[in-house]
From TrEMBL:
Enzyme superclass (EC): hydrolase
Gene Ontology cellular component annotations, sorted alphabetically: chromosome, telomeric region; Ku70:Ku80 complex
MF terms (GO), sorted A to Z: ATP binding; DNA helicase activity; double-stranded DNA binding; hydrolase activity; telomeric DNA binding
InterPro entries: DNA_bd_Ku70/Ku80, SPOC-like_C_dom_sf, VWF_A, vWFA_dom_sf
GO BP annotations, alphabetical order: DNA recombination; double-strand break repair via nonhomologous end joining; telomere maintenance
Protein name, per record: DNA helicase
Amino acid sequence: MSNKEYITIVIDASRSMDTKSVSGSDETDFQLALKFAMNLLNKQLLKNRKSDRYALIVYTPADVQFYYQNTPVTFSRVKEFYELLVRAHSESMDTKGDFNILHALADSLENQIANKFIRSVFIVTNGVGSVNDDNIDLDKLRNISENYSVTTNLLLLENEDNKETKQYFEELAETFDGRFNVFPFEEFANNGPPLKLIGPRCMTDCTLSFVQGDSNDIHLAVQVYPAIKSQSQVHGHEYLQDPQSKEISRVKRQTKYYIKGNTDIANEFFESGKNNEENSEDDKEYVKDSEYSYGFKYSQRNVVALLPELEEAATLETTPGINIMGFIDMKKLPVAYLTDEPAFVIPGAKSDSENKVAFNSFVQSLIDLKRAAIVRYVQKETYEVQVCCALAQRFQIGDNWGHGLILHRLAMKEDEKIGKFPEFKSGEDELDSVMEKFVASKKLTNDITEPDSLSNLKLGLLESKPFTEKGSSKTSLENMLLSSCPSTKRFNYYVEKILYKSLNEESLTDFVSQDQFIEKYLTSDEKHTLLNIDNIFDVKGESLFENRDSAAEAALRSAFEIKFTMQAKPSRKKRKTDSVFGAEHDEQFDEYFDIDEILAG
């Protein structure tokens, strides 16, 4: 299944879009449609997927314009689309023309590009104009939609003047066999992001067995698939801009190698971060590029060969597989240190029924015993050996349930050295009990989940959905916890906000260089931002909990608070002095001032 996308955006730029259909909104229908289109393109910019393609159709009663380039989306291209829409709307005449919104729909379906794509069309209109299908071959459009698997989504800004248009499109959608959807714009825009059905690639096709077993032991054919991928912040290349000439140059880095005159490999390995200031340039002898050859580079966690010949000679022979080394009680498993991305283990797709029954029985036995398996996992031939825990889970796919394992890499001692985890040592019993009380007091609403079962929108997805329903009091906890890291999500949202507001500016760099830019353009219209969260325990989420135990929260906060003690400065005895200016001073002022007291106070 292809993951490439071809999305066509159809925007109604007619004068009828100057009305305000959304109650309580200060923006016109055209402004809402323009913002929707630009945000859709800006999200694509942040994804930076070179294989996706976007097209724009601008509809006015006098003309229907189609814009497409067989290139990835760029910021200059988004700005060009923005200017095209604004210009078309400003030049549109308030008269009836030869075209209606159905002509724009026909153009979006007829202009299909070659190759395999996930194809979709978004049409934003308030439906005020008339709809006439006399000169449109609807059967041809249905065939195109079926042959190319195009999903069309009509986002209708509802008002009193478009009831006939809405009824027409709802009846038309029924003839497209589920590939045509009509949504209220406000509902679509305020709901969650779309869910896309993708074909995951198998990471490993191997055997699950014991480490030192004979041929009569467990040998189950399994497959490993990626599970959860953490969301990363928006990032890209680094550039420098000259403040005078405004020229932009890309940041380049150059690596230099040197030999220290007095070195100890043990100290360099374990204490590389210490005494950096004491390493003078006189103690370094730089090596010319022509005088060295690549060998190995090492860190506290790994040693990597830099040449294929060295890598082949230095790599131990390993074969793909999952080998069970033992079992551990779930209560004793250090779940807090499971930070790597997990993977799913399920029976082999081409395995027989006996293999699947044996695998399901093994998983169910782990669930009943409340145990996790400690396994040795090798993803591919000659890959590194990972020591992982295998957690038994039941998965809900549609109306059916299945069994599987979740692989997590266990934290090792070397992880402590690189600052990935705090020091491995037993915590204070008193602090642990305070933390337990805090966690117990934060009981979430709708907490009816089972620890050994997974049932959520993404895992049980059987077909793509244009949006996800907004969370409410009836939303299950598993679906509520699908959102990504709040800080990462907010950071990416700010970047999208900057991109959209900069489209009306001549220069993006001048726009972001304005004084008090954050206060003016990012946080002025928001109640809660990344800048007004008081502390880590206050996430402005009181509605998520059944009750709020302020005593438990205060106790934990006091345990983690850093208390500063200021050294009291001894008071100096004031001496009697004669008045210089004739008049005697009153009791409100000292006879002389101490600069140290002023600076300290």
